[in-house]
Amino acid sequence: MNKKIRVGAVSYLNTKPLLYGIKRSGLMDRIELIEEYPSKIAAMLLNDEIDIGLVPVAVIPKMKESFIITDYCIGAVGEVASVALFSEVPMEQIETVLLDYQSRTSVNLAKVLFKEYWKKEVILQDATEDFRSNIKGNVAGIVIGDRALKQRNISPYMYDLATAWIEFTKLPFVFAAWVANKPLGEDFEDAFNRANAYGVKHIIEVVKEQGPQHYDLLKYYTENISYELTDEKRKGLALFLEKLSNL
Fold first, then answer.
1. Strands 5-10 and 31-36
2. pLDDT one-digit tens code per residue, 157-210
3. Residue 159 belongs to what domain range?
4. What does the alpha-carbon distance between residue 198 and residue 129 come to, in Å, rounded to a whole number?
5. CB under 8 A, 24+ apart: contacts of 183-191
6. CA 149 – CA 84 distance, rounded (Å)
7. What's the CA gap between 218 and 207, in Å, rounded?
8. Burial class of residue 138 in the structure, from the number of CB atoms within 10 Å of its CB (0-12 exposed, 13-18 middle, 19+ buried)
9. Are residues 122 and 183 in the same domain?
10. CA-based angle 118:124:125, to the nearest 5?
11. Helix, strand, coil shares, percent, the chain, to 5
């Protein structure tokens, strides 16, 4: 392909290992890399403004064609740390939940958990940019990404969504995967997969490159985020998409 392949990636700390490999591969001459927040990347993939994106998996059912093209993802086999329900009060006192506008998957996961796991009726409200300041009293909020790592130091109550999903289903969770809206060719897909693998194998270098953060990045990259898209994660993904269709 002479035309550059348009690649959209999430601009969060959790994607840095994957991007570390991509940016150090020979692929940078073949791709146009765009970094944005998750729901923006998902919209771009749906609108064919990019060819492949590290997108919230909730977008997959909305696509005419979808191809998961690597063995890597943003997943969790335990506490994910950066996707959670934050509150000033315990779960039983929560009345309203503000939904982070940056991710479709996390919002839909929260809806599944409230309905089937926590079995609690709450008022769900789509949030705008500065919604974290409204997490007070009986109003809780779903916060994702880097802002969630900061929110851990603010809110007295935190309910990790990956932990809840795993307790509920006994399966890991996939928040985002590399999804293409068209076949991109075996040669590119193999090179792209190897670039992801390179980044995951160089976590120490990634941590050093990011500098001091609100959270221990070595722990985040090795204990919270699980990057390999295993068969178990694919089972968890399939179950989530099934539950999504019943919301």
1. parallel
2. 999 999 999 999 999 999 999 999 999 999 999 999 999 999 999 999 999 999
3. 83-169
4. 34
5. 183/67, 184/1, 184/5, 184/51, 184/52, 184/67, 184/69, 185/1, 188/1, 188/5, 188/27, 188/30, 189/69, 189/70, 191/25, 191/26, 191/27
6. 9
7. 6
8. middle
9. no
10. 155
11. 45, 25, 30
C-alpha 165/C-alpha 72 separation (Å) is 20
Q: What is the DSSP-derived secondary structure letter of residue 88?
A: S
Q: What is the pTM of this model?
A: 0.93
Residue 47 burial by CB count (10 A; 0-12/13-18/19+): exposed, middle or buried?
exposed
**Six token digits for residue 3:** 């035309």
Domain annotation covers residue 64: yes
Contact 99, 124 (CB under 8 A): yes
In this structure, are residues 95 and 139 in contact, taking their beta carbons and an 8 Å threshold?
A: yes
**Rounded to an integer, what distance in angstroms lies between the CA atom of residue 47 and that of residue 41?**
10
Q: Tell me, what CATH number does 138's domain have?
A: 3.40.190.10
